[in-house]
């Protein structure tokens, strides 16, 4: 494991140390009030860690503290890793972003689109254009999630066993075939909707590369970047470092343990979810963010060209729209106002509209258990936050962390 430690005096990197300590003071209140079990945060500037802190427990019931090597379920922070995998294949000429995905996934040859009716009796029409690779990368394919509870197609996903997980007997190929058999929520390219699109993208990576997604990740991304503690399961001795998963108690929002869902990560899943399946450590994901900040290279290992990273972290929504204008007002891992979406990341377009102190061009995402990261190229800044509270919409952690970090930059 790569050692994670403070590498420079915060003042040398442009932070007011007194102001930076406000991060810990504010976030610690969530632990003191029983709203979070514990957390870890990392603030890095110009490639050096300026602030690293932990509070609370990775396992409250066992009295085990959060430690630097704690392993976290990162859920949708898997999506940027899958997007990097796809763009590595793109750079090799395996496909164009405009290619229809049915060239490799024939189950998507004739998608249908919901037009009206109920989940029990949906009325559909043929898709007017094929689902293309860039639709998967940008969540504009018309796919959805069962947990949205906002559209009849969401209910069809739930009825098929897809809400917060996948059916236990289905692998990624089988899940992808079933998603293809369900109607799309809208015509491909017509809207933005947070969805299983990145899981389908993971299946595309498998078919194009001839490797399972975990094999591709390990061989092509995780091992080259030194991310040795990241994978689709936490087994053996590593379980000692695994944080427990918590949910808010209705009414009080006190963090309550949920092993029924949390223990799934302790065994290799049948379905390798490129949209939600990984567990990782702060040290590993720190290396991933530094690889992104450096334009696709870290410690002499280059996985992507800098032009590709710039393309991935640019807004790809039509006419420069933000998610508020082009997306559906549903749960996602980021706010919508002022944020566009690139190839696997949210992209900040308008800080004033977003009511944030961050910079134009910041790119980011988060996970369902309230984990989050962002990269700010203008300030050469990366920030990581880890905890294990599902869902991520329970507390305004990400907005508060942004204002706390940026007010300390002087």
From TrEMBL:
Which residue ranges does the record assign to the Beta-lactamase-related domain? 24-403
Specify the domain of life of the species encoding this protein: Bacteria
A single Pfam family it belongs to is Beta-lactamase
Name assigned to this protein:
Beta-lactamase family protein
């Amino acid at each position: 494991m790569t050692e994670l430690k403070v590498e420079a005096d915060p003042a040398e990197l442009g932070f007011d140390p007194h102001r930076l300590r406000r991060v810990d003071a504010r976030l610690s209140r969530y632990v003191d009030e029983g709203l979070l079990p514990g957390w870890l945060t990392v603030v890095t500037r110009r490639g050096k860690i300026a602030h690293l802190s932990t509070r609370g427990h990775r396992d409250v019931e066992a009295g085990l503290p959060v430690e630097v090597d704690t392993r976290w379920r990162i859920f949708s922070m898997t999506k940027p890793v899958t997007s990097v995998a796809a763009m590595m294949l793109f750079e090799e000429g395996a496909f164009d972003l405009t290619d229809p995905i049915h060239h490799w996934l024939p189950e998507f040859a004739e998608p249908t689109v919901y037009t009206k009716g109920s989940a029990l009796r949906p009325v559909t029409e043929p898709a007017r254009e094929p689902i293309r690779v860039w639709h998967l990368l940008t969540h504009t394919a018309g796919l959805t999630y069962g947990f949205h509870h906002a559209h009849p197609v969401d209910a069809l996903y739930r009825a098929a066993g897809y809400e917060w997980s996948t059916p236990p007997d289905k692998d990624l190929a089988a899940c992808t075939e079933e998603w293809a058999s369900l109607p799309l929520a809208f015509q491909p390219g017509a809207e933005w909707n947070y969805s299983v699109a990145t899981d389908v993208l993971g299946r595309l990576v498998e078919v194009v590369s001839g490797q399972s997604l975990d094999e591709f990740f390990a061989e092509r991304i995780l091992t080259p970047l030194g991310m040795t503690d990241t994978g689709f399961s936490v087994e053996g001795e590593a379980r000692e470092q695994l944080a427990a998963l918590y949910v808010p108690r209705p009414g009080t929002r006190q963090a309550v343990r949920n092993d029924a869902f949390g223990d799934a990560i302790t065994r290799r899943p049948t379905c390798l979810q490129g949209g939600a399946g990984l567990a990782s450590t702060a040290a590993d994901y720190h290396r991933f963010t530094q690889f992104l900040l450096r334009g696709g290279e870290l410690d002499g290992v280059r996985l992507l060209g800098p032009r590709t990273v710039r393309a991935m972290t640019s807004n790809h929504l039509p006419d420069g729209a933000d998610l508020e204008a082009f997306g559906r007002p549903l749960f996602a891992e980021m706010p919508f106002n002022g944020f566009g979406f690139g190839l696997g990341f949210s992209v900040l377009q308008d800080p004033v509209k977003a009511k944030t102190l961050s910079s134009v061009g910041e790119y980011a995402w988060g996970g369902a258990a309230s984990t989050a990261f962002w990269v700010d190229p203008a300030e050469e800044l990366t920030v990581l936050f880890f905890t294990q509270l599902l869902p991520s919409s329970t507390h305004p952690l990400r907005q508060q962390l942004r204002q706390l970090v940026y007010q300390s930059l002087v």
